[in-house]
Structures are given as C-alpha cells and as structure tokens.
Design brief:
This protein has 1 helix and 10 strands. The strands form 2 sheets. Strands 1, 2, 5, 6, 8, 9 and 10 form a 7-stranded antiparallel β-sheet that branches. The protein is globular, with a radius of gyration of 16 Å. It has one helix spanning 38-47, and strands at 28-31, 50-53, 58-63, 67-72, 80-85, 91-95, 99-103, 110-117, 122-125, 128-129. The chain is mainly beta. Strand 8 and strand 9 (122-125) form a beta hairpin.
C-alpha cells in the first residue's frame, strides 16, 4: 500500500514575485487522530487515516466494507469534482456534488478519492482496499 501525501517544499524563499516558486503553505495533510500527541498522530499516519490537500478541505471521509464517501467543505464560489479512482488511475465514478459515495463492485482492488476545486486546488484520500482486506 502506498499513501499519497502533500507537502510544501519550503526550502526556497527567493523570487517572491514568482507564483510558481515553492513556498510554505501549499501542501499539507489532515490527520484524523484521537489526540493531539505524537504517538496518536504517527499511528494515524501509519494506518493511512489522513488525507492530503493543496487547499481543499473535507468535512468527512468514511470508508466501510461496502463504500467510500467524501464530503467537501465548500469555499466561496468554488465548484468541485469528486473522482473515485481505481487501479492504474482509472476514474471509476465522478460527481459534481459536494458529497459523493462510491459503492464497491468487488473487483477494484482499491479505491481512492480525489477532489478537484475549480481553482485548481485538490485533495486526495488514501487508497481503501476492496475485498477481504477492506475496512469494516
């Protein structure tokens, strides 16, 4: 299992006028941990209980043995596209609603979700295994 992570490469602070130059605050992870302490945070990261973002905020991510659901926290006038993605990057389903659910068919191997905001910002959740090893 390979997790998708977003980070900002804040090693370069020159060219402040260049919007393409790497700077702080352009990529991060939202970790779902029971407590704000290192052991709980690292445990959640190891389990894949987090999502990555370049600016899109999610109000919920829920995976069961039957489906994967994602809800976006809308910002301003932005529009959103929620994509459910399977192996080799195949888009399995897509929605323009602020909340979407993908029901597993059973042959996907894994499913993850990507949210694309109309301004180009994104969020993506970790792969959910489908089949015998899927979450309960």
């Amino acid at each position: 299992m390979i997790y998708g992570i977003a980070v900002d490469d804040a090693h370069y602070f020159k060219r402040p006028e260049d919007p393409a130059a790497p700077r702080p605050g352009q990529g991060w992870v939202y970790v779902k941990a029971p407590r704000l302490e290192s052991r709980a945070l690292v445990g959640a990261l190891e389990r894949g209980d987090f999502y990555s973002s370049t600016g899109v905020e999610l109000t919920s991510v829920n995976a069961t043995s039957r489906d994967l659901s994602v809800t976006v926290k809308p910002a301003g006038q932005s529009k959103y596209r929620i994509q459910f993605i399977g192996k080799q990057g195949a888009v399995l389903s897509e929605s323009t609603d602020s909340s979407a659910t993908y029901t597993f068919k059973g042959d996907e191997s894994y499913v993850r979700a990507r949210v694309i905001e109309s301004n180009g910002k994104m969020a993506w959740v970790q792969p959910v295994p489908v089949g015998r090893t899927a979450p309960k």
